[in-house]
């Protein structure tokens, strides 16, 4: 079987777009408890917007470092459920991630050290073609949490062999100056998190300008700010948020609602 990739009774962390109104999360957890009864279950989130792979990739990227070790992450945002897309197992330190091959692992692979990547085949029989999380990915995660090696569950593959994130395009005509970034997440406070990672050269270049313009936000200037409270009235703050990415925010107001911003939208910025 090979050397176990995690210790027996590893925590299983869950990230899905299932929500809590339906029985799907309960059925998934029930299957995991049956097959890995010694493992603790941890919810990262079940509130990913349905089918929003980019948002799920962001949640995984910013959460993985905060999870205990050893841990198996079961990440399922899977609009292609039932198709021929495969299942992936990725290892970073003493954490394993099980996910569909649809771009959900893209940010994780880009920003975290990788010790191994495998492609797993489905079992010979599946209870349902529309609930692979419960019937395929869940049992796979449970077996890894019990100590089975990833090498015994799949064939090695390289990061360049897996599917990238879907690419969003700017809604307006191409710009000759500035830069564009997608909206990865809008939190419950209306803070709009961009695909602009702190510490990157692109972030350094963008935040070097004292004021920016974002056409989607009208004539309201965008200024770099270190905290929400430091955002002056009548401006939008470009804030280095707690998740390692830059976000747009207002001081004690809901920015996304005010300007009609939405998940997946590509925002353009240019210096004033």
TrEMBL record:
Keywords: S-adenosyl-L-methionine. Belongs to the SAM hydrolase / SAM-dependent halogenase family. Residues 12-153 form the S-adenosyl-l-methionine hydroxide adenosyltransferase N-terminal domain. SUPFAM superfamilies: Bacterial fluorinating enzyme, C-terminal domain, Bacterial fluorinating enzyme, N-terminal domain. This is SAM-dependent chlorinase/fluorinase. It comes from Desulfohalobium retbaense (strain ATCC 49708 / DSM 5692 / JCM 16813 / HR100). Residues 183-266 form the S-adenosyl-l-methionine hydroxide adenosyltransferase C-terminal domain. Pfam families: SAM_HAT_C, SAM_HAT_N.
């Amino acid at each position: 079987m090979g050397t176990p990739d995690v210790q027996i009774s590893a925590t299983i962390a869950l990230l899905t777009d299932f929500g809590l109104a339906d029985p799907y999360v309960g059925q998934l957890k029930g299957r995991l408890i049956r097959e890995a009864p010694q493992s603790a279950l941890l919810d990262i989130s079940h509130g990913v917007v349905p089918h929003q792979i980019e948002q799920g990739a962001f949640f995984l990227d910013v959460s993985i470092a905060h999870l205990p070790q050893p841990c198996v992450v079961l990440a399922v945002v899977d609009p292609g459920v039932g198709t021929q897309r495969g299942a992936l197992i990725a290892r970073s330190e003493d954490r394993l991630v099980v996910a569909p091959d649809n771009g959900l692992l893209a940010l994780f692979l880009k920003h975290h050290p990788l010790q191994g990547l495998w492609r797993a085949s489905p079992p010979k029989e599946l209870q349902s073609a529309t609930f692979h999380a419960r019937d395929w990915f869940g049992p796979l995660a449970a077996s890894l949490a019990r100590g089975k090696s990833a090498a015994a569950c799949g064939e090695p593959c390289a990061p360049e062999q897996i599917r990238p994130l879907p690419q969003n395009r700017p809604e307006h005509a191409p710009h000759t100056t500035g830069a564009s970034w997608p909206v990865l997440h809008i939190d419950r406070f209306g803070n709009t998190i961009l695909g602009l990672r702190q510490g990157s050269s692109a972030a350094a270049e963008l935040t070097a300008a004292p004021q920016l313009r974002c056409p989607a936000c009208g004539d309201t200037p965008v200024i770099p700010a270190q905290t929400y409270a430091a955002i002056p009235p009548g401006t939008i703050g470009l804030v280095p948020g707690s998740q390692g990415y830059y976000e747009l925010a207002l001081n004690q107001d809901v920015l996304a609602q005010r300007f009609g911003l939405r998940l997946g939208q590509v925002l353009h910025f240019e210096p004033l």
